[in-house]
Design brief:
Four Helix Bundle (Hemerythrin (Met), subunit A), elongated, 2 strands, 4 helices, 159 residues, mainly alpha
């Protein structure tokens, strides 16, 4: 049952962040045809989307292997098993929220592809919601890891 819950959490997160949010951006943008965008724009889109997804996937793999879980709570509700160890290496050397940084970068690629204010507005609303989530998550990490987490916060930026 625990493993099923964990798989469901990762699938739900993947569907939400990789498919649903871009779909909302697309709908909000008036459902434009996703056709040819030009070489320079395609390079920028590729760097943002592939780079963002790569960072997020690296973080998930690192989290499973080294943290033995997942630090994400969905506003106080455990979505996947919580980490047993504070992670400060691997992608966590870049900042304290590399999975979210990767997701925001991936979604920025979609905003560039759609190239309209509505897509940027969806991105900004998502950022605000996730920022509130991060603040909740940080409270939980402070409770779980105390001074170790505080020291890490002094070394690494949030994003």
């Amino acid at each position: 049952m625990k493993q099923l819950k964990e798989i469901a959490g990762y699938l739900l997160g993947g569907l939400l962040f990789v498919a649903l949010i871009p779909a909302v951006m697309w709908f909000a943008s008036g459902m434009p045809v996703l056709g040819h965008v030009g070489a320079m724009k395609a390079i920028i889109i590729g760097i943002l989307t592939i780079g963002g997804l790569s960072l997020s996937v690296w973080t998930i793999i690192y989290m499973r292997r080294c943290g033995k879980g997942n630090p994400m709570d969905a506003f106080g509700h455990e979505v996947a098993p919580r980490t047993q160890h504070l992670m400060t290496d691997g992608p966590y050397r870049l900042n304290r929220n590399p999975m979210l940084t990767g997701t925001l970068t991936y979604l920025a690629g979609w905003a560039v592809w759609l190239w309209c204010w509505q897509a940027c507005l969806v991105w900004a609303v998502f950022f605000v919601i996730m920022f509130v989530q991060v603040l909740s998550e940080e409270s939980r990490l402070r409770r779980d890891f105390g001074e170790e987490y505080e020291a890490y916060c002094r070394k690494r930026r949030r994003f």
